[in-house]
Structures are given as structure tokens and as C-alpha cells.
Design brief:
The chain is mostly beta strands and 132 residues long. Helices cover 8% and strands 46% of the residues. It has a 6-stranded mixed sheet. β7 and β8 form a beta hairpin. It starts with a strand and ends with a strand. The relative contact order is 0.33.
């Protein structure tokens, strides 16, 4: 079973930056899709940015384009996922989670849109609060 550990959240002012990190382990990461999701108070969880290892072409939520950058790094057994978030806005306030599906042909777009409906191995998340 995949284990996910997120970190890097915090409290920042509008316009500030944060870099989130996620360590994904417990699986063989061949041909995987991985991404960042967030859930704001009273709202549904949504995909922020996802990427598939095969093509490396990222998907971004419209509101994240131009401000957020997803990246990955790998060891033999662990995928490290990052999200550089710049020019943060109060509407970015949420708990941020990572999720991954190893050995899949799901596109980054599909995973970001659909994973909140069925993925059930979420980590503890890391909270991001952007003050105005």
C-alpha cells in the first residue's frame, strides 16, 4: 500500500511563496501518475496539479497556472513530489494532499479531475493559510 507524507505548509501573507513536499513510498513506481490536491473548508477536494511519469506534461488547475510549479524526483523506492507555490492568494488556503497511482495509464488531467472521487489512501495533508 502506498504511503504518502506531505510537508511544507504554513502561514504566509498574500503574495508569498511556499514549497510543498510529498514522499510517496510502498509501491513500485513504474509508469505512475502523481499529483497535488487541496480541500478548503466547506468545499470538495480538487486537483491542483498532476503529472504522469511517462510524458512529464503537467496538468494545472486554471487558478494555479503561472503561479504553481509541480516537480518530481525519484529514488529506487520513493517518489518525491514538490509544489512550488508563488504569488499565493487567500483563495489558496486549504489543506494540501498528494496522491499517486502506480502502474497506470491515467493521464495527469484525468487523475487530477477524478482521483478525489475514488482515491482512498490520502496522507495527513499539510495546511496552507494565506492571510490577506
Amino acid at each position: 500500500e502506498v504511503q504518502l507524507v506531505e510537508s511544507g505548509g504554513g502561514l504566509v501573507q498574500t503574495g508569498g511563496s511556499l514549497r510543498l513536499s510529498c514522499a510517496a513510498s510502498g509501491a513500485t513506481f513504474d509508469d505512475y501518475v502523481i499529483g497535488w490536491f487541496r480541500q478548503a473548508p466547506g468545499k470538495e477536494r480538487e486537483g491542483v496539479s498532476c503529472v504522469h511519469s511517462r510524458d512529464g506534461i503537467p496538468y494545472y488547475l486554471d487558478s494555479a497556472k503561472g503561479r504553481f510549479t509541480i516537480s518530481t524526483d525519484n529514488t529506487k523506492d520513493t517518489v518525491y513530489l514538490y509544489l512550488q507555490m508563488n504569488n499565493l492568494k487567500p483563495e489558496d488556503t486549504a489543506v494540501y494532499y498528494c496522491a499517486t497511482e502506480p502502474r497506470t495509464s491515467y493521464s495527469s488531467n484525468y487523475f487530477c479531475h477524478r482521483a478525489p472521487l475514488w482515491f482512498n489512501s490520502w496522507g495527513q495533508g499539510t495546511p496552507v493559510t494565506v492571510s490577506s
